[in-house]
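U., I forgot to send this yesterday:
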Amino acid sequence: MGIEVVVEGLTKSFGKQNIWQDVSLTLPAGEVSVMLGPSGTGKTVFLKSIIGLLKPEQGRVLINGVDMVNSSERDIMETRKLFGLMFQDGALFGSMSLFDNIAFPLREHTRKKESEIRRIVMERIDVVGLLGAEGKLPGEISGGMRKRAGLARALVLDPQIILCDEPDSGLDPVRTAYLSQLLIDLNAQIDATMLIVTHNLDIAATVPDNMGMLFCRNLVTFGPREVLLTSDTPVVSQFLAGRREGPIGMSEEKDAATLAAEQLVDTAPLHTGPRTVVPQLEPSPGMPVRQGALRRRERVMSMMGQLPEAARTAILDSYTPAAGGARA
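Result:
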């Protein structure tokens, strides 16, 4: 089972530039979470701070009692072994075959024999659908295949926490749909805690149990997916609708004068009633039941009284037989 990740009061700057401040959230054990946000809002910086590759100025990241911000380097390095990290571009070595790329963490961090390494690597290659391509170089395969190879490499050390940095970047909608299903199937198989950083609305709408959004140096919200997907907060509505009208500008947030001018223009209303929350993806036929989804259902039902009405309605609809019964 995956491990809970508790983030408390995290603040990160580069020089005088504040990236985000006082971010607090909990990634529930074994569940899939997504962090949304416009480009340039520090989503990748957030991932690197969780795993201890960047040092925030304030706050804590607690994993199994270890603080990834303030603990000793030895404890941080040991805890980092619990993670699998999938980078935007796959981060593969161009001169190595896919097999050797995926085997690299095992050869680097374990003393396993080559026969055992081969068994593990081929299992992971099979899981991500790359059987037959293991001898190819990264430059000889498509971007989507490189993504899957990067995911296979993230899985070889049996991580309990998986971080995916924009796994959809450079993929067409069909490949993104396949990748989304693969992430859900993986969660069903290994019950790892997963955090996906993305600005892809299809992944956001169909994959996660929980969703958050970074904007204007703050965490706008984090919680059950239905809270964000039904939110009428202007920045959330604008982002989910992909509209120009709203607080998000080309480079950063718009100033007050620009927002006021927009409101004088006769444009379509930002909010046109409650948004339909599409069903979350289910594991493929033959896959085990997602244990994270079962835990999530119990957890969310216990907090219903704290949620907005639109989110409560969407949650109850998702758990009715007509909506698919055991949907999470």
